[in-house]
Specification:
Elements lengths: L1 H77 L1
GO cellular component, one term: cytoplasm
Subcellular location: Cytoplasm
Family: Belongs to the ZapB family.
Length: 79
């Protein structure tokens, strides 16, 4: 009878080991996914910063053109 109990215990231990192994593999996969997502976020953040700078530059250029246009319109009114 104790041999049967020992076999059941051994089976449960083996099942626990298998479960732990699978969970460890899943953890590694999730770590890889997390690292990939962090890289994507960093890349997107860099793109966002670049777009913000470009937007600011374009706004400044627009402002310069508006001032030029106003100056030209002012000259035209004087004539």
């Amino acid at each position: 009878m104790s041999f049967e109990v020992f076999e059941k215990l051994e089976a449960k231990v083996q099942q626990a080991i298998d479960t732990i192994t699978l969970l460890q593999m899943e953890i590694e996969e999730l770590k890889d996914q997390n690292n990939n997502l962090k890289q994507e976020v960093n890349h997107a953040s860099g793109n966002t910063e670049s777009l913000v700078r470009e937007n600011q530059q374009l706004k400044e250029e627009q402002h310069v053109w508006q001032e030029r246009l106003r100056a030209l319109l002012g000259k035209m009114e004087e004539v």
